[in-house]
Specification:
It contains 16 helices and 17 strands. With about 425 residues, it is an alpha/beta fold. Helix 3 (about 50-65) crosses helix 4.
Length: about 425
């Protein structure tokens, strides 16, 4: 198929998704795979295990897209009706697939399980479909290519979907001719989203129609994504390089990273390169910063540990914050986090430290220190930088924002070297 742009819709079937019983991770992994192929995702929808809803969605999405990727409804219970709906939509019937049947028998026997008729019924697939191998489960995926449109149907079990994605990706590449896709990423700080938009207004207006700019703000950081799609790979690469250079020149005072990377990973990357170490002293975040840092393999090379200084006793006896400071200025104060950060350096013998203390809520605030008040300090052996933030309401939101802002401050301190 030779088209200017291949379009796809993602349809996730399941009452459990609609009521929030489980998180819809399938949409995420499918969207990422399609995006890497340069396929435009027009819509992600979640629908009930109901025949009318499924048929109506098939009618709408197949008419509007080149690809419709469907998950769910391929099990053995009464509400698993996706195959039935596929047969109704395409006016076809189910037939037994011998390869799938043998696979089901092999996988059940290898697990010491019986093979009831309900499980064996999964070998029945629409006559017009091609089977997509499910290496870890019994329900196969199905590929239907009719009238230059492709319907892909897979089980809703996340692990089984992931196990099938590589075969699906190869089939999509062979069937369609997606345009080349390039994404470039920039991390921006110390400017508001509206201020950045005003700064880049002329730049954005001058972009060719096959390149777009997206603003993705998150906890005090703006992630800019410059995306390009074009059939001519060389032309696209040249124009993307030109536009990136223009963007970097305009926003050079605010761009601190040109990688698509999380802050904790970026901090770890720099520390590892410089053979430096760090530790955290956390009150209101309860260890969240340490958790973010240690999510990444190899973090033991640069992360030594953390003090969860939730109480004033720990601040006093472990981090040696003076009693007078706590009594007169309080736990949520500049001097308190400064003592926490500076004393942690020698306590853990590290090159850098991060300290936070604040009021995450929903209670504990007052007129002087409302919920969302947070002090952050970052330090090395020569310098300690402190900053006051008012992060609003929502306990988890305050904790998440504190974590990311602290990591940003640490990164800036390291880069100031």
């Amino acid at each position: 198929m030779n088209k200017q742009q291949v379009k796809a819709a993602i349809v996730n079937i399941g009452d459990e998704l609609l009521i929030g019983q489980i998180v819809n991770t399938n949409a995420n992994v499918i969207a990422q795979m399609l995006n890497t192929l340069g396929i435009e995702i027009t819509e992600i929808v979640v629908i009930a295990d109901a025949q009318d809803a499924i048929l109506r969605t098939f009618e709408q999405k197949i008419s509007q897209n080149d690809i419709v990727f469907v998950t769910g409804g391929l099990g053995t219970t009464n509400d698993d009706i996706t195959k039935k709906c596929i047969c109704l939509y395409y006016h076809t019937s189910l037939i037994e697939n011998a390869i799938v049947k043998n696979h089901i028998q092999d996988i059940r026997k290898s697990r010491g399980l019986s093979i009831p008729d309900s499980v064996l019924s999964q070998a029945m697939v629409p006559q017009i479909s091609e089977v997509i191998t499910n290496p870890i489960g019994t329900a196969p995926g199905m590929w239907i290519h009719q009238n230059q449109k492709v319907l892909i149907s897979t089980p809703g079990v996340p692990g089984e979907l992931v196990a099938m994605l590589e075969e699906i990706r190869l089939r999509l590449q062979q069937t369609f001719l997606p345009w080349n896709k390039i994404d470039r990423h920039f991390k921006i700080s110390n400017i508001s989203e509206s201020g950045l938009s005003d700064m880049l207004q002329e730049f954005e207006q001058g972009l060719p129609d096959y390149i777009s700019l997206a603003y993705l703000p998150k906890y005090g950081i703006i992630n800019l994504r410059l995306s390009g799609r074009h059939a001519d790979k060389q032309l696209l690469e040249q124009e993307m390089n030109r536009q990136c250079a223009l963007l970097q020149n305009i926003a050079k005072d605010y761009i601190f990273c040109d990688q698509n990377i999380e802050m904790a990973q970026l901090v770890g990357q720099v520390l590892k390169q410089q053979h430096k170490t760090m530790a955290t002293a956390e009150s209101c975040t309860g260890g969240l910063i340490a958790h973010e840092i240690t999510r990444y393999a190899g973090s033991s090379a640069y992360f030594k540990g953390s003090v969860i200084a939730y109480s004033n006793e720990i601040k006093q006896h472990i981090l040696h914050v003076p009693t007078d400071t706590l009594n007169t200025q309080g736990a949520v104060s500049e001097d308190t986090v400064k003592y926490m950060a500076e004393n942690l350096l020698s306590l853990y013998n590290v090159d850098y430290s991060v300290a936070v203390s604040g009021i995450a809520g929903p209670d504990g605030g007052n007129e002087q220190h409302p919920v969302g008040t947070v002090w952050i300090a970052v330090a090395d052996k020569n310098k300690c930088v402190t900053k006051l933030h008012h992060l609003g309401f929502g306990r988890q939101r305050v904790m998440d924002r504190t974590c990311q802002l602290a990591l940003l401050m640490l990164y800036q301190l390291i880069q100031d070297k």
